[in-house]
Amino acid sequence: MNKNIVRVEHLSHRYSESWAIRDINFEIDQQGVLGLLGSNGAGKSTTMNILCGVLNQTEGNVFIDGINLRDAPEQAKRLLGFLPQNAPLHLDLTVNEYLTYCAYLRDIEKKQVKAAVEAAKARCGIAHFSHRLIANLSGGYRQRVGIAQAIIHNPKLVVLDEPTNGLDPIQILEVRKLIKEIAEERAVIFSTHILSEVQATCNDIRMIEGGKMVFADTMDAFNNYIMPNSLLVFLDNPPPLAQLKAIPGVTSAELLNDHSIRLRFEASDTISKKIVELSVHNGWQLTEILLEKSSLDEIFAQLSNRPLK
Ligand SMILES: Nc1ncnc2c1ncn2[C@@H]1O[C@H](COP(=O)(O)OP(=O)(O)OP(=O)(O)O)[C@@H](O)[C@H]1O
Hints:
The chain contains eleven helices and 14 strands. By secondary structure, the protein is of the alpha/beta class. The protein binds adenosine-5'-triphosphate (ATP). It comes from Mucilaginibacter celer.
């Protein structure tokens, strides 16, 4: 058995003139959720479409459970389920009719089709809508039907392209929960441009920007990496900047106006406490202290200049 369900090697794709992705490499474990994060146009859908055999890459290789997708596409595709960005639903069919149709497309033996449809519906919490027309389902339930078709043949890998796009906040929470549940039995990769989505759902993160992989590690490593490292400090009676710069751990102090100062610091859990103590002791009259969080754009920019580990 292969340790990784997916191995992507030196993957590049060019649409006519320009490269959409360039030299992408990653692996996916047998189980768990991997998030592919990137801003609009970063190359997520291109990567997903190649991974599922919908698009033929210009260069590089994709192995699904050790099978080269280019050499044996039929065999490799049997191992995966795919929910594209626009779910391929037939609105004029009922949930049962649609999933039965998908089961036949997936080459499930006739006598096992009913059981496969029932299992997928139960897994996705849509059994009570078996006879409902898909056109009459809410966005969240339509997405569940989309996920049900992706797992109907019990694949080892499920690929979901922006699965929570267009859903309301409650539906987003429900779909995230479902993604985690289906990943208990298999590997799931999903793409998104929303950082909090990956943070809430994934064990691992791969981040692409401008067609290049800019971060590949665990979610914990990512969270450590983007830990805030600057503070906004508001002091009614600020000391000279040199005094603030001299605080152990502080790497720079920048005066923003008469009373507000940005302090950058090295990784430290106690820096805020230290500043509060010093303010009381020296009469700086601290009125507010804020941790500055990086925006996703800043993180992308930061990571784009950072060598891959
Ligand atoms: N069929 C196509 N023909 C030409 N260029 C394309 C095509 N599809 C995508 N591109 C370009 O390739 C780049 C990557 O697009 P891709 O759709 O993979 O990004 P994405 O990260 O999925 O973005 P989004 O979140 O907006 O879907 C973009 O510059 C896009 O304009």
